[in-house]
Amino acid sequence: MLTLTVQYFAILREQRGLTRETLTTAAATPTALYAELRARHAFTLPADRVRAAVNDEFVPATHPLRDGDRLVFIPPVAGG
Amino acid sequence: MSFSLSPDPLDPAALARALADPRAGACVTFEGWVRNRNEGQPVLSLDYEAYALLAAKEGARIVAEAREKFPLLAVHCVHRVGHLQLGELAVWVGVTAEHRGAAFDACRYLIDEAKARVPIWKKEHYASGATAWINCATRGDFADAQP
After folding, report:
1. Dist CA B113 CA B60 (whole Å)
2. Any chain A CB within 8 A of the CB of B79?
3. Segment B3-31, tens digit of pLDDT
4. Do B133 and A53 touch (CB under 8 A)?
5. Whether B135 and A75 lie within 8 Å, measured CB to CB
6. pLDDT tens-digit profile of B35-92?
7. Which of A11, A14, A56 sits opposite B53 (nearest CB)?
8. What are the structural domains of chain A?
9. For the complex shown, is ipTM > 0.90?
10. What is B3-130's CATH superfamily?
11. Are A13 and A77 in contact, with CB atoms under 8 Å apart?
12. What is the DSSP annotation of B13-29?
């Protein structure tokens, strides 16, 4: 099991009702963790529309998670 | 100067003055404004939210790419965060170069890449009272199908 911090922004922040949380998970990748959180919190965005960042850097969806990582799931961006 | 976020209103004249350089023959700037309609819906105001640490990193990478691709003298991009009213300046891009071709091309590159890659999100507040996070619809036509 890993202990991770997840930070939420924009639509995910609103749907989760939090800006960050620390959680324990068996998920080994961002994709697996997003699936777990989406099921728990009814996030509307499907996994293929969300990117992941670990410790403030973009990572592939299959990036191996490590204990203590800080994760952000990035909804489709819309600057400008 | 490269890429920054601002919680405060932007002053385009001051931003352009900061690029002043006697070597520059061209200064091209882009201003993104808050518009009163999107996809046919009347818009009253916007919220911009950023993942500041990664936005700064990705913005700096885009600026470095532009400097690699085009012969530039200076580059600055700044994006607002927070609640913005109609007509407010949401994003400002300014580049200087010896000649106009590089300045036009780099300015276009910077704003296009920033919109596509920097983790900033926009929530629209509509006249109907509804709100929506842009590009985050999960049914119907996705707004991000357009460039």
Report:
1. 11
2. yes
3. 999 999 999 999 999 999 999 999 999 99
4. no
5. yes
6. 999 888 899 999 999 999 999 999 999 999 999 999 999 999 999 999 999 999 999 9
7. A56
8. 2-74 (3.10.20.30)
9. yes
10. Molybdopterin biosynthesis MoaE subunit (3.90.1170.40)
11. no
12. HHHHHTT--TT-SEEEE
